[in-house]
């Protein structure tokens, strides 16, 4: 089956994620452009009859960059669009759904999931091109990963519910007794369940998730260290720095400096080919 050309719009602060680029270019002709490029001109430059899929990649999407996707969707209604983002929230996923984004991915991406989505879309485009090349392809947007609960029982379900609540309330004061009550259990059972599933206590899990979230937020250079500290539920900067250094071996400022230096060494050129978050 003939492959559609994938146009990857780099709307990130630091450059397209090499992992996302590799996943796509191994299987589809790929054109990487910036948010300053004219999408209409890019589409017109394709060979007559070529089908096009557009992917918008974000790290920390703001109103301006999201408006760009929304406007492109309204202007080029026959071109299906996918969205990749590092910063994720339920509100952002709902926005993508309402904008009629074909698929929504949170980085780091799962290669098989991205490939499956692109292949399915490529098949639909091939079928529609035989009838009407201007057919608009839409798909009901799936729920974000944190809402796709598997059907577990007992302790696994308790941990799943508690972990989801924690992830959505990292900036808040999290009391073990309150969360246990929310999950229909007691503090002792909740702690035992976390120890069995994750190998760490309930309180250790909260600290690790806060540090992981802080690591992701530190990639946004417009957020100060103190902003990140409060955003992940630490209300004392010195305690935040101490815990961050204990888990990563660096202070928040040292981590950001090291990450920015490493990121600046990666360049993704304009190309046309034939074809985690950090875990502690």
Automatic annotation (TrEMBL):
InterPro entries: CheY-like_superfamily, Homeodomain-like_sf, HTH_AraC, HTH_AraC-typ_CS, Tscrpt_reg_AraC-type_HTH
Keyword field: DNA-binding, Transcription, Transcription regulation
Pfam family, one: HTH_18
Signal sequence, renumbered to the chain: none
SMART domains xref list: HTH_ARAC
Any GO molecular function: sequence-specific DNA binding
PROSITE patterns, A to Z: HTH_ARAC_FAMILY_1, HTH_ARAC_FAMILY_2
HTH araC/xylS-type domain boundaries: 160-258
An example Gene Ontology biological process: positive regulation of metabolic process
Protein name: AraC family transcriptional regulator
Lineage: Bacteria, Pseudomonadati, Pseudomonadota, Gammaproteobacteria, Pseudomonadales
């Amino acid at each position: 089956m003939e492959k559609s050309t994938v146009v990857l719009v780099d709307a990130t602060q630091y450059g397209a994620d090499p992992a996302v680029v590799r996943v796509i270019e191994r299987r589809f002709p790929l054109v990487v452009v910036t948010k300053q490029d004219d999408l209409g001109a890019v589409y017109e430059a394709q060979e007559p009859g070529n089908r096009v899929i557009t992917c918008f990649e974000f790290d920390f999407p703001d109103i301006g960059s999201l408006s760009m996707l929304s406007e492109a969707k309204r202007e080029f209604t026959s071109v299906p669009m996918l969205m990749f983002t590092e910063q994720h929230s339920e509100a952002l996923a709902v926005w993508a759904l309402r904008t009629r984004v074909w698929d929504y991915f949170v980085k780091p991406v799962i290669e098989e999931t991205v490939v499956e989505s692109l292949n399915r879309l490529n098949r639909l485009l091939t079928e529609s091109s035989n009838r009407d090349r201007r057919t608009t392809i839409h798909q009901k947007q799936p729920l974000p990963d944190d809402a796709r609960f598997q059907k577990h029982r007992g302790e696994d379900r308790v941990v799943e519910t508690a972990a989801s609540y924690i992830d959505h309330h990292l900036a808040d004061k999290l009391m073990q007794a309150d969360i246990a009550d929310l999950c229909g259990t007691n503090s002792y059972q909740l702690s035992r369940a976390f120890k069995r599933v994750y190998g760490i206590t309930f309180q250790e899990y909260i600290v690790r998730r806060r540090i992981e979230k802080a690591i992701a937020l530190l990639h946004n250079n417009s957020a100060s260290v103190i902003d990140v500290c409060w955003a992940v539920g630490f209300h004392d900067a010195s305690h935040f720095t101490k815990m961050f250094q204990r888990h990563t071996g660096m202070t928040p400022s040292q981590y950001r400096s090291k990450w920015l230096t490493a990121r600046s060494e990666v360049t993704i050129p304009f190309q046309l080919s034939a074809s985690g978050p950090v875990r502690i």
